[in-house]
């Protein structure tokens, strides 16, 4: 009996090993949880470097890394509405402040006069806590704040000490520099909830916009991101006014770090804190100074933010494809231009940032400042490609001109 049992067991065992390969048990397929990776682990396909230096965001191993210089953002190619997003992040500094963020439902380009987009920010910050100087109340933390930025709107789950649109987390759960943290962001119908390392700590509602681009922020410190994945949820049909703007193909001409792609006369133009500034003596210099793009453009649309100090007198000229044009009954070689300084107009903000949109479609020039049309003219003849240039002009007075957010979109020429 003992021998018989051993033989039976041996036959069963040997019989199992002789099964055809196709009949062998197969491991169970992993359940489809609906999440899709947002990063392929090789390159930044699916992402757009909006306003940073080409080296600001890079790929190393299975991580997306930002240097933090200059301040700006890397956004998704597509817009998202309702979703669950999970990611891991780590600041490398163990003692210094580490600052970054995840932008939700943002516009494709920065807001006027800032390197940030309009949207809702999920704070990615360590080693810093802000307190009101008068009351001592904590107004911003490094462990899971949610807040609106640059024109976006939201209502925090808990009232903020100063009344701002910012939700402070209910408890501290983030690890410090040199350690990985896990975020789970659930965004649905204008409501955002944030889980930090496994527990919900903050939320906002009634967000506007509630559909737009997602973005990783670069701000002063090296930060690493990995395991970024997203599960899209059914639409809740946002109204057009509840959606972010749609990308139109604008490309940045200024990397925020240096003058690569530009040429300037006499070295008067410098890069300072992510802006282009004029640096020359206050008195005794009356010659004009141009900052000229190395690339030539034909029909195109130029977006540029600019600011002149309150004490400035002079003219700031921004040109796209200068040509023989007719305006107000006159003719001659002129350019699409913006004049400030002595000119007092409601649409020009002295001492504040302005946004100009200058367009040439092959037959017509137009210029808009802060949403107000200020110039429109027709070309007398076809225009050959020209460079984009920014020029400051003044008479023995320091101009105080600053420029940022320079974007161009090439157009098909009208026939």
Quick description:
This protein has 415 residues and is mostly beta strands. 4% of the residues lie in helices and 43% in strands. Residues 34-231, 250-384 form the 3-keto-alpha-glucoside-1,2-lyase/3-keto-2-hydroxy-glucal hydratase domain.
Please describe what this structure looks like.
This protein folds into two domains: 36-245, Exo-inulinase, domain 1 (Jelly Rolls), CATH 2.60.120; 252-410, Sandwich (Jelly Rolls). The chain is mainly beta and 415 residues long. It has one helix at residues 2-17, and strands at 36-37, 47-49, 57-60, 63-66, 72-76, 83-91, 98-106, 119-126, 130-131, 138-140, 146-149, 153-156, 166-167, 181-188, 191-196, 199-208, 213-218, 223-232, 251-252, 262-264, 269-272, 275-278, 289-297, 300-308, 315-319, 323-326, 333-334, 354-360, 364-369, 372-379, 386-393, 401-410. Residues 1-21, 321-344 and 381-385 have low confidence and may be disordered. It has one helix and 32 strands. A hairpin with a 3-residue loop joins strand 28 (354-360) and strand 29. It is globular and about 60 Å long. The strands form five sheets. Strands 19, 21, 22, 24, 26, 27, 28, 29, 30 and 32 form a ten-stranded antiparallel sheet that branches.
